Structures are given as C-alpha cells and as structure tokens.
C-alpha cells in the first residue's frame, strides 16, 4: 500500500483540504438555511432521512430493514393523513401522539439494547455465551442503527404533525397570534375539555399546569414536548421547564435521548450528500 501511494502525498493533501473546506462550507450553508428558512430545511431533511437509507439498503439487499421501513411508512402515512385533515377529529391528536410516543419508546429501548450488546462484545462478555464477536457486534450495531434511525425519523414526522394539528385546532400559531382565545377549560393541544363529567363525552385524565398557568392534559403536553419537540407553551409560547415537568429521574433520559436524535439527524441526512459532493469534486479535478 505504501509503495502504491508513494509520491502522491501532494494529491492526498489536496484531497484532505477539499474535504475540510467542503465540510465547513456545507455546515455554514446548512446553518444559514435552517435559520432563514426552517420550514423548507426541515422538509428537505425529512425527505432525505426517509429516502437516503432506502437507496443504500435496497442496493445492498438488506430485506429486514426494507420490511420494517415499509411497515413504518404505511402506519406513519396513515397517521400523518389523519393529522392533516380539516376539520380535525377530536380523537386524532391522541392517536398521533400515541403512535409516535410508542415509536419513540421502542426506538429508545432498541438503541439501548444495541449499545449494551456492543459494549458487552468489546469487553468479551459474549464469549461466556459462546457467541462469535463478529456476530454479536453485527447484532448490536444493527439494533443501534434501527433505534437511532427510526427515533430520528419518527420525531421529525411527529413535529410536522404537531405543528399542523395545533394550527388546525387554532390555539397555536408558529408565527403570529393564535386564531382562537384559549379558555381555562380547554386543552390547547387537542382542543378538548380539560375536565369532563363521567356522563359527558370527553377525555378523563390527569392535568398539568405550566409555569405560565395554562393547563393541559398531561398526556397531551408530554407528547407535545417530548415527541413533538416543542419546548414552549402551545398557546403563549413561554419556554417550558422540562426538568420541572419530568421530575422522575427515570424519565429524564428520554429527554436527553431526544436531543441526541436531533444531533444525529445531520449525520444520517446530510453526511452522505456532503461525502458524495466531495467525491464529485475529486473526480472533476482528476484526484483519486
């Protein structure tokens, strides 16, 4: 290998420089795009998150992933369809948050199991069960990939649905003032009464009051903050104190896991595009 690459040091340095410059410029462009046009940025990122892994897994014939991707796509397409209907059915917000919260918890558990298997393999614990290191590592990395990928994708779809449903209900507007005045007896996330009698039609569950004194169904506001990635009050946009909301220490890792998924979105959606751009530049300049 050294003989093959001998005398090409200048070319290699040029390729490394191209990679670094492209990464820096791409990062600046993405940051500016996200700040100036967040809606289009999120939509394009979501599309790439959904399509880029499909291209590579189809090319590599990873049928297990393709089956799970198809099931996820069908169910999520139905849930998204329900979330974008007008008028919004009263049961739709709960259906949306239940699906994406379930997906979030499954991806969280899958990622944790995958990470544990990888660590056990590194420490040689797999040998106790007479499992080959390569088999254990493949299993762990696969679970980690599934957990992180569907966690990121699910949260992005959930955020889109949360925005659309809340805007349809009328007590939330991404920019500007809400179209409806919020009553103390109405949940701004689902638009249903906060407290109902047993004989009335409605949702009976615990409530949660934010520091701004607006009251919501506990399930709705948790879904809004964790799954929908909205750390503000759905009505007045005051920042939500997640540490106060999730006082149980067992629930706090879910919040940190969500922040990790937001960071990983860049690696899954944009990193392959940037690497492909670098390879294209090298090809045009005749660098190998």
UniProtKB/TrEMBL annotation:
Q: Name one GO biological process term.
A: ERAD pathway
Q: Which residue numbers delimit the RING-type domain?
A: 187-237
Write out the transmembrane intervals.
15-33, 40-56, 62-81, 102-129
Q: Which GO terms describe its cellular component?
A: endoplasmic reticulum membrane; Golgi membrane
GO MF term set: ubiquitin protein ligase activity; zinc ion binding
Q: How does it sit in the membrane?
A: Multi-pass membrane protein
Compartments annotated for it: namely: Membrane
Q: Look up keyword Cell division and say if it applies.
A: no
Q: Does the keyword Transmembrane helix apply?
A: yes
Q: Which InterPro entries match?
A: RNF121/RNF175, Znf_RING, Znf_RING/FYVE/PHD
Q: Which UniProt keywords apply?
A: Membrane, Metal-binding, Transmembrane, Transmembrane helix, Zinc, Zinc-finger
Question: What is this protein's name?
Answer: RING finger protein 121 isoform X3
Q: From which organism does this entry originate?
A: Salvelinus namaycush (Lake trout)
What gene codes for this chain? LOC120057124
